Model the fold of this input.
Amino acid sequence: MARVSAGVYTSHVPALGAALDQGRTADAPWAPLFAGYEFSRRWLAEHVPDVILLVYNDHANAFGLDLVPTFALGTGSRFEPADEGWGARPVPAVIGHPPLAAHIAQSCILQDFDLTLVNRMDVDHGLTVPLSLVCGDAWPCPVIPLAVNVIQYPVPSARRCLALGRAIGRAIRSFEPDLNVQVWGTGGMSHQLSGQRAGLINSAFDHDFMDRLIARPDELAEISHVELVREAGSEGIELVMWLIARGAMDCQSPRLVHRFYHVPASNTAVGHLILQAD
Ligand code: DHB
Ligand code: FE
Done:
């Protein structure tokens, strides 16, 4: 049977994609940040899974106000990098895994989570920047995108995200082929891109969030939107996607193999965790 072997959590700041694409990762302001991902690249090279399920949010590139799916699962076989206004990133297309994605859709919908099935969508920095940070220039395996609406209210609660993650974990573990699956959660950490509090960073909250994500995710499921926005900023709401990924790991005490935090990157605090299930 398939299993969830590890969870990878990381911010997905678009400026990191630009720094990578322009070969500026060793430049003074960026070097300490990218150094935090060197371990991750070595770790991934030694732990290449069969499939990555990558939880991210689209930033009005694949979806807009015409269509606002809360949870959109990429069931197609190929997803192109999105043009976010300055041309598509020069990175490979994402190859999906339609059989596992179809199984996750069936299993989750029968567990009362209504996923939207998307056979065609472009994937933006929310998905491609984490892959670049951890994998380098090429994607080592198929990737199933799960796009979560954290842009247009109403957005899903932390509680529902953790519960969806658990349903996804059950779905993966009931897929017959013996696949090694990693579930990645992206976005965050604290940041606010506009308004009076633009530039907000709350490092104390971020560290506490990482502590609790590792050991006590059920506590995080109780956080309301108002509290999350108050503490982590309007875009800090992206952290609910880390809860989906954490829920998919059926593991009370995962092994922490890497933890990194850096401020600032563009307007955000960058957080990064790698948890192994064994
Ligand atoms: C920034 C961060 C994000 O998570 C994002 O999606 C867009 C911009 C930023 O800090 O610039
Ligand atoms: Fe974002």
Q: What stands out?
A: The longest strand covers residues 255-265.
